[in-house]
Amino acid sequence: MIKVFIAGGTGWAGSELSKAVFKHPNMRLTGVLSRTHAGKNLAEMLDLGTAHIPIFDHMETALQEVEFDVLVEYTTPAVAKINITAAIKKGKSVVIGTSGLIADDYVEIEKATDENNASVLAVGNFAITVVLLQKFAEIAANYIPNFEILDYAHEDKIDSPSGTARELAHRLSTQRRPNVHVSEDELVGEKASRGADLEGVQVHSIRLPGHVISIEAIFGLKDEKLTLRHDSGTSAEPYVKGALLAIEKVGTFKGFKRGLDSVMDLKL
Ligand SMILES: NC(=O)c1ccc[n+]([C@@H]2O[C@H](COP(=O)([O-])OP(=O)(O)OC[C@H]3O[C@@H](n4cnc5c(N)ncnc54)[C@H](OP(=O)(O)O)[C@@H]3O)[C@@H](O)[C@H]2O)c1
């Protein structure tokens, strides 16, 4: 039985996962983190019967008062690193779902993971269709040296680029650095219009009403181009299965891993 604590277990993504963990035969949800609902019973809030699932407002309090093996971090980048580090120091395994952490944050988290002999799995997107896009894009990057990323989301998404775009840029950069035909110094006009440089990969974020979440990896060769695109729907359901897999797998290794495929047996 894996005891799970979900920071952000009352949120849009976290509440779907809370319900799934609660119903999972091999998992027990021992508590969640949320400022506005602290002190309440999550089971009552989510209509999960007569169970008592406490809601805490601070990670430190939760770490003192409730037992768990795995922390799922599903809050905001503002508080995620504090929660993750506190849990690692107490010997907990951690699944990171929160987006908006930057490359330096991951370096710090990896260092803390190694120092505490802990297990951490960071997943920019738990949806299987995104995992596939990541793999297809990695294959394409090996054949096509020119590529950029487009990241689309609703107008009120606070993190930019998205966690999915950051993870994809990171992964593609480990395959190769894309060709740069006009360097930043040579550019004429508005340099910002070329997007953000993430580990050598140009990422362009669009935030508009009417958009949910989409990502495109665009590859160009002379007289031909390839677009790999993923579109999310409006529910948080596609993330649940991947997050459950991450919870199951995170305790099976030591160290820091990034990407759901790092714990999957993908046949490509
Ligand atoms: N990896 C993936 O596949 C994936 C999928 C979906 C979402 N995400 C990411 O997951 C994160 C959460 O997304 P969401 O849409 O579920 O957001 P959301 O609906 O706003 O939920 C955020 C949750 O975090 C809690 N929270 C926020 N700040 C907190 C703080 N300082 N202390 C304690 N609890 C805090 C909120 O409760 P209170 O406001 O009551 O504190 C709420 O429970 C985002 O970064 C999002 O991009 C990742």
Main sheet? 7 strands, parallel
Widest β-sheet, arrangement of strands: 3-2-1-4-5-6-12
The tally of helices reads 8
Q: What is the CATH C-level name of the largest domain? A: Alpha Beta
Specify the helix fraction band.
Answer: 25-40%
Q: What structural class is derived from the secondary structure elements?
A: alpha/beta
CATH architecture of the largest domain: 3-Layer(aba) Sandwich
Assembly category:
single chain
Q: Roughly what is the average pLDDT, rounded to an integer?
A: 96
* Tally of separate domains: 2
Shape: elongated
The fraction of residues assigned to DSSP E strands is 15-25%
CATH superfamily of the largest domain: NAD(P)-binding Rossmann-like Domain
| CATH-derived topology of the largest domain | Rossmann fold
How far apart the termini lie comes to 32 Å
Instruction: Specify Rg, calculated over alpha carbons.
Output: 19 Å
Structure at a glance:
The chain has 268 residues and is an alpha/beta fold. It has helices at residues 12-23, 42-45, 59-65, 77-89, 103-115, 128-143, 163-175, 237-250; strands at residues 2-7, 27-33, 55-56, 70-73, 93-96, 119-122, 147-153, 196-198, 201-207, 213-221, 224-231, 255-258. The mean pLDDT is 96.
If you had to describe this structure to a student in words, what would you say it looks like?
The structure is a single chain. The protein has two domains: 2-125 and 235-263, 3-Layer(aba) Sandwich (Rossmann fold); 128-231, Dihydrodipicolinate Reductase, domain 2 (2-Layer Sandwich), CATH 3.30.360.10. 34% of the residues lie in helices and 24% in strands. The chain has eight helices and twelve strands. The radius of gyration is 19 Å and the shape is elongated. The model has no long low-confidence stretch (mean pLDDT 96). It binds NADP nicotinamide-adenine-dinucleotide phosphate. NADP nicotinamide-adenine-dinucleotide phosphate (NAP) is lined by residues 8, 10-14, 33-37, 74-76, 79, 97-100, 123-126, 159, 163, 239.
